[in-house]
Hints:
Blueprint: H1 2-6, E1 10-15, H2 21-34, E2 38-43, H3 49-54, E3 63-66, E4 69-73, H4 76-87, H5 91-99, H6 101-109, H7 111-127, E5 137-142, H8 146-163, H9 167-179, E6 185-191, H10 195-210, E7 217-223, H11 230-237, H12 246-277, E8 281-285, H13 292-317
Parallel strand pairs: 1-5, 1-6, 2-4, 2-5, 6-7, 7-8
Antiparallel strand pairs: 3-4
Helix pairs in contact: 2-13, 4-7, 7-8, 7-9, 8-9, 10-12, 11-12
Amino acid sequence: MLNEILARRVLIVLGKGGVGKTTVSAALARLAAMSGARALIMECDGRAPLAATFGVAPSFVPAEVAPNLALMTLDGRAALEEYLRLVVPGRMLLKAVFASRLYQFFVQAAPGLRELMMLGKVYHEAGHTDPKLPGRRIIIVDAPASGQAMSLLKMPTAARSTFGDSVVGKEAGTISQTMRDRRISAIVQVTTADSLSISETIETHANLSRIHLAPAAVLFNRMPRSDFDAEDISALTNRRGPHLRKKDLEHLAELARSELSRVSDARKAIAKIRAETGGPVLEIAEHGDLSGVALIDRIAADLALALNRENEAAARAMPRH
């Protein structure tokens, strides 16, 4: 599954706010860089949390934050103005356009066009090649929260119908077609075990499937782990010793039961996602003691181990001659 995902040129990462979508996006980019690709993270949040995490200033152009890993803020207005620089001749004329009150009104009144330009920027970067930097390139888009992301992903089709065979309409058609080309693009959803996240993941998956953008996989983030079972808890409560108070043992047993309950709830949530979506679900372990770049690196390392296991399983499945 990870091999198939990383083979795409564009990954669009979706998820409810608070599920760790931004961290997982960065971890996927780090994994791609570790695998030999040149990865570019495009974050859609104007507050630029990833720029802050990596200790760089927000930028509308790619800025390197690690070997083979770059980061940029994806802004609709900046993308629109970049597009206009390509189609409007003359710097003085362009400067006058940007300064005009009509243009300012146009930008405010046409948010859909800004969204279209954002996706246009994504696929422009995906197709961009730099002779000084050979090798495969992959774009990871840390998309807005699911509701906004749905509007973003629907925009090219809507714009194609609205603008017809105009320049904008043709651009929208190209973006829509490329976004649906599974050799080029993939959508990945991120969720956690809480009920609201699960419901939104399933609903979003169904909505995307209806517009022929079914996600390639769901990444189940913060999967709790336990190295014990109910028998271990029972053995704990039955322990005896001069320094062991029954009250303390019961307290520890209650904490252990709570952890087992979390694991059980997560397993049920994963089963529900698989049943409702019919797609693969990949677990990402919980690392409550880590944050920032350390957490990104740890998740990337976990994903690298999963990728190695996937490669080993594929090698074993190959026929021997």
